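U., I forgot to send this yesterday:
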Amino acid sequence: MQDIAITISGMSCGHCLNAVNRALGQVTGIEIKSVRMGRAEVRVPDADATERVRAAIGGAGYRVEAVQEG
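Result:
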């Protein structure tokens, strides 16, 4: 498992936080560490899960600006 930090644009309110949290909750095999305005931290098992996280955030209507490993 690897921790990643994701910078997300388009988040501006509590609804946005909930939407991203719900979207991440649908990604199997990951652990959500935190979701806050403009940023999420999750634990993923592999690179495929990272791509599923990116897709889930995009599907919720937000843009992944950067993914930082570590």
